[in-house]
Here is the input.
Amino acid sequence: MRMAIGLAALGLIVLLALLGQAWTPYDVGAIDVAARLQASSWAHPFGTDQLGRDIGSMLMAGAGPSLGVAALAAAIGIGVGVPLGLLAAARPGWIDEVVVRGADILFAFPAVMLAILIIAILGPGAAHAGLAIGLFNIPVFARVTRAAAAGLWARDFVAAAQLAGSSAARISLVHILPNIAGVLTVQAAVQLSLGLLAEAGLSFLGLGAQPPAVSWGRMVADGQTLIAIAPRLVLLPGLAITLTVLAINRAGEEARAWLLRGAQS
Here is the structure.
């Protein structure tokens, strides 16, 4: 039961995010000036914003873009960084040196500045924000994968696979990758959390999701000028981001523990 808390919480958040893309209690695009800044009520449990939109519906609709950008960024990092890390571990020498130095070059640029530069070239938008965040994820996954995989190449089971005639690519995929899955799962959870925070930051700066699209970071940006009058406009999407980050990190730890038990059994 204890092991299911993080995964159950994350699953519920993802379910609400998917539901929010198809249906919300109120139309988030409908403006009702007469109902602006209403307090919590049976009709609007979380109140309304400065345009009279239901905040609960806005939270549901904003979950999808926020999680989508973070997931896209993590997918880019995993899809490019993990193969590069496996290649560097399998081919020590100049290939390893190129991967490591390439990662160092990307790390030399501040993540936010690099994201702003990319978005300035491509233009603002959720997809471009995901791409910008994902590029910074590549060296993270490359270095973590390389460090975790390098030590396994000296193990007996790898030597046995080499004697059996397995290629370096097959050994990396069949023998190395499953043994570092736990490490990569935790790192994926960390980068997913950081991606969610980065998306919120970019949307706050006006570089993420663009109106009329809704995201949690966009909600914080729109409500900042009214924080003294209606602090819930900022606190509620901020709380949604915080709870989601906690759920992602807890789910990552639970998934890692499950993978370790499976490997040991």
The longest helix spans residues 55-90. The mean pLDDT is 91.
